[in-house]
Amino acid sequence: MRRRRLKPRRQRVMMVAGRHAALVTNPMTAKRQRRYSGSGGATKRIAAITLILCLGSPLTAARAQDNALDKEVSARRAAQSKTFTDAQIIEGFFKITFGAEFHTAGRIDRIRKFDAPIRIYVDNRARPDRSQQLNQVIDDIRAHVDKLDIALTNDRQSANVVITLIRDRDLSRTITGLFGREHSRKIQSALEPQCLAGYQKDDTYRITRSEVILVVDVGDFIFYDCAYEEILQALGPINDDDSVPWTMFNDDVQMGFFDIYDQYLLNLLYHTRMRPGMTREEARGVVAAILPDVRAFVAQANDLK
Fold first, then answer.
1. Would the pTM of this model clear 0.85, i.e. be above it?
2. Taking the CB of residue 43, how many other CB atoms lie within 10 A of it?
3. What is the pLDDT of residues 263-277, one digit of tens each?
4. Which CATH number fits the domain 84-302, given the four candidates 3.30.1330.10, 3.30.1490.20, 2.40.40.20, 3.40.390.10?
């Protein structure tokens, strides 16, 4: 659309049963989270068994869960690739930041990102309380994306990202409440989500509002894997691509942490020279120029030799 517009079109927010519905007049992009199996599912089962065996000692059960999570994530951190060619990083950047796994309207062939401080409000509707884990995820993202102004707020009105924490049984109803009945049917039919991220953008491709839905009554690894992927995708890289083997934005990959490869992608996207609304051709020239800076930051943030 028209990047030259100085004043983006104002959003019109519908209220449904006291909750924000998806904008009908503006494009909305949503992304699914895969159903979990394999080691993620195993983590979930192990956590349940631990709770049964240690029912008389909640503190012991919590420590056992923490230890299991630490081992799972530590093993995946150790196994992750840390060395990538320029071509591998650039190819993944264009596959993940352009396009969308699901969208309702508007063009998806432009750079989309926030161009203002990101303020996150957490709508906690369920137990167990995942607030502490969510704080850790947001702190970790801030520490690994250079100059990203992202923080929590207690003021919902000033927030441009809302994370809704729910029970699994309430997922369908929550999607309908946030995105509207028509969009909800399409989302759930096409994606079968377990957790979800979506955003709205203006005519200049600046993201104006994001919604994230996370299920809390799952295993710790599944929660962290969902939280990292959905929050990061709410910042712009909304596409999934199974041909990129190193990214969490691949339905066959489960991380549970902010991996090195995706740090490269987010730092490219949120570099000050990468502007909302850029075409592939415009972005390609910028990527080549800023990649050395991005490499230096990621190396320093992760103590890479």
1. no
2. 25
3. 999 999 999 999 999
4. 3.40.390.10
